[in-house]
Amino acid sequence: MLTEILINLFERDLSRLEDEIAAYETEAAIWRVPQGIKNSGGNLCLHLCGNLQHFIGAILGHTGYVRNRDLEFSSRDVPREELLVLVGTTRRTVLTVILSLSAEDLEKIYPEKVLGEASTGHFLVHLCTHLGYHLGQINYHRRLTQ
After folding, report:
1. Can you give the residue ranges of the DinB-like domain (predicted)?
2. pLDDT given at position 139
3. Is residue 114 helix, strand or coil?
4. Is the pTM of this model over 0.90?
C-alpha cells in the first residue's frame, strides 16, 4: 500500500515539476534570481533531480548515478529542454526503483545515514515532502519572474 501511495505522489509531483518548468515564459526567467530569492527555478529543478537520482536511484536502485550537489546550485542557463529530459529520466528512475521495493525493503533502515536511523519507507515519504516543498518554491519563483 505504501508503495502505491509513493508512486502516486512522486508521479504527481514530478509531472507538476515538468509543468512548472514548461510554464516559464522564457528560458532566461528560469535562471533569474530576484532580490530576496536564493535560488532560481532551474537550480531548484537540478537540485530535486540530483537529490532523487542519488537517494532513490543510486542508493536504493544501484544505478551508478554520481551526484554533484554543488553543480545543482551553481549551474546556469541549462536549456529548458535539457531540464525537462532530466525530470523525465528522474521520474522513470524513481518509479522503477520504488516498484522494485518489497514491503520488507520499506521496513529496513535506509542504507545511508540520514534523518537518524529512518526506515526506507519513512525516508521515501521525507523525499516526497522535500519534492513538494521545492516545487512550491519553483511555482512562486515562476510567478515572481513573469
Report:
1. 10-138
2. 98
3. strand
4. yes
